[in-house]
# Entry
Amino acid sequence: MPRGSKNPFGRKSIHKKGSPQAAQNASASASSTGAGGYTKASGPPSSFATNLVSNNKKGEMAMVPKPEKARTSSSTFRNFKSVELVKLPALKDTPPKDKPELFIKKVRQCNALFDFTEAVSELKSKEIKRAALNELIDYVSNNRKVITEAVYPEVVNMFAINLFRTLPPPENPTAAEFDPEEDEPTLEAAWPHLQLVYEFFLRFLESPDFQPTLAKKYVDQSFVVQMLQLFDSEDPRERDFLKTTLHRLYGKFLAMRSFIRRSINNIFYAFVYGHLRHNGIAELLEILGSIINGFALPLKPEHIKFLMKVLIPLHKPKSLSVYHPQLAYCVVQFLEKEPPLTEMVVNGIFKLWPKVNSAKEVLLLNELEEILDVIEPEEFVKVMGPLFSKLSACVGSAHFQVAERALYFWNNEYLMSLVHENSKSVIPLVFPTLYKTSKTHWNKAIHSLVFTALKVFASMNQPLFDECSTKYKKNQEEQAKKLTDRKNVWSKLETQARKNPLSEQVSIPNPRMPTPMPDVIMKTPSTGVIKRDKDGADESGDTDSIVRRKSQLPRDPATVSALEDYAKTTEHHLT
# Structure
């Protein structure tokens, strides 16, 4: 199904109805799990329970019933049991002594799952669950001392049942990276309920009554791993809620911080060195940006390893544009905390510099300028050689956007102040390319920017600028002289060879390149189309013509004959 047709959520997945016994087993599995709603061995609550043993003949495999007609479902394959919810009394109208019990009943009521791909099914129960979730959000936000010890397992279990699920395969796994400006995201059909579950869990974590010491029994490492798996969701709204939720967990559970960082690193390793496809890289980098900001000094070896083994290789994938702003922010955060890492980072980026991807070059030039904004003068001296060699190559690029972005570096006042202090080393590196580009580049806007850069260098150190200009002109004259001398030497050798009496018996190949192409005579545009015979000769006799070079394709007699027959058939039908 194409996006935007019939199904407004852009997702089509197969959902098979099982037997009623299977649905009962599915709901029983949700209630028989641990306090967190899932076990470490089996993962999140599953609705795939199937009665494989026949009731009639013990030990024999039961026949799986033939699935009914497939229907669209949300972003997971589940068997939904038809549940009829009963509206419970409102919390605000209940006596204080009964509120804790009613609160838990409403949380359990929200464990019911519904199929949102069928818009008109179970409307009453869906509305009851939506109202219960809204009431729970309001109750936790506006009341104190409502989160008791008995509430923790129920809330975590409800969160796990509603959200932990197996994500479907991508809609188009061979497509290019997602472009937020042009592509429409794939949305989750069950979002009306999932959004409220996320909001309730966030209010639960942010409540002043929340106690991490009690919650750590249920929010364990398995919980975190399954939450990180949801970052591959194609719905950007869900990834945004996951980002905020994981950040709150990182702040609340100090003992799990190292595990959360390692788990995120594993996702990055799989992305960079594995399948190179993941929807949540930008959100995970955004979380790490705030985490890096809180690192204590000096940085630990594991943090430096993360920078060099994860963040730098993340510059390599083709989908860099999707998450580059967050990646550049993380790199700059590291360099602000540990300036001596600048040389390693800059050289690492240069090793991954693209050869033919101009859009990626522009992104990396943006990042380089952000790095230069926070660089220390002593670190600039270490990288100015490779830095301006790369800038020189970018200025000479035939792609005007790359050249334009590189020339914008001359508008950076802080960078120019550093260049002024090291002008004797920088100007000779860049001057030849600037001068050549000013004479040969095809884009007029580039000419203007090059003249501005040359003017900056001239005002910075006029004697050195004149020396570079003289040296460049001298080198050009020497190059021209070398070419002339080489041509003269070959001409003398050819002349002497022809004077040899044996030259008439030996053919001397012509070393000149490229090989001359046949002349094609064309009429000027004002005189009309020229007529030719079968051999390609001009029949008009006109001398007013233009000569140009053009490759001549071999003529296939069979093709010419077929074209002539086709032309005759066409004329016959027209007459």
About this structure: Strands lie at 14-15, 71-72, 519-523, 545-549. The two ends are 48 Å apart (CA to CA).
